[in-house]
Amino acid sequence: MSPEKETKIDEIVEELQKRILQGFYVAGQRLPSEREITKELHVSRVTVRTALLRLQAENVVDIVPRGGAFVRSTSTKAIIASGPELKQSGSFIRAMERQGRQTLIRFIKPSSIIPVGDEIGAKMEADPSTKVLRRYRIHLVDRVPYRILDSYYVASLLGDLLGKDEGYIPLFKWLREHTGLRAARALERLNCRMPSAEEATLLNISRGQPVIDIERWIRADSSILFEYTHIVANSALHEFSYSYDLDEEASK
What we know:
The chain is an alpha+beta fold. The chain has 2 domains: 69 residues, Arc Repressor Mutant, subunit A, CATH 1.10.10; 164 residues, Chorismate lyase-like (Chorismate lyase, 3-Layer(aba) Sandwich). It is built from 9 helices and 10 strands. It has a 6-stranded antiparallel beta sheet. The longest helix is centred in the N-terminal third of the chain and has 19 residues. It is elongated, with a radius of gyration of 22 Å. About 3% of the residues have low confidence.
């Protein structure tokens, strides 16, 4: 094979790998057909087929005869714990990284500062005209979409995070360093339900697979409610563990 042809195959392999790593193609998802890739990237079909075979050899994709190429999945459950376990593990992203797993935050829409509105305003105990920073994103672990997060932060406290979507910024550390406030108390409410069409698409699951719907409120040490987040988690990839104190007298 000539160096020119080898280089072109390398380019296609690199481009497809980049899209997979950035979450544009997620685990279990079928890649575009050879014909579609050929047309989009302006290369021959033989080049595309050779690139896909190389990705299969590198355990990045699985090729199903007459079915197409699919991003390989090696997903395992994320264990979400409360109490001392939660304090030790930290955030979802940090907990996954401590396990040696590859994590990625992909923003569905760029962050923006908007009026909180009636629905979210009621949840945040705020006037509908109050400005909030909205961050709408997906957490991927080992290229698998685990959870969708739609977060609203009081803009007067966290508005300077606008435009800082790239890279991971520890939110609580940023809050403490820039405002002097410390995250002190969180409340979460969980519900099991079927996903909407958009949620199923983003999580790459069927409409018949349940999701865990989580609402989370976080207050600072002065009882200021500064964050409301709506989380939709793939139920097959999450395990929740909670610990709490028991009142022996009340249980009699």
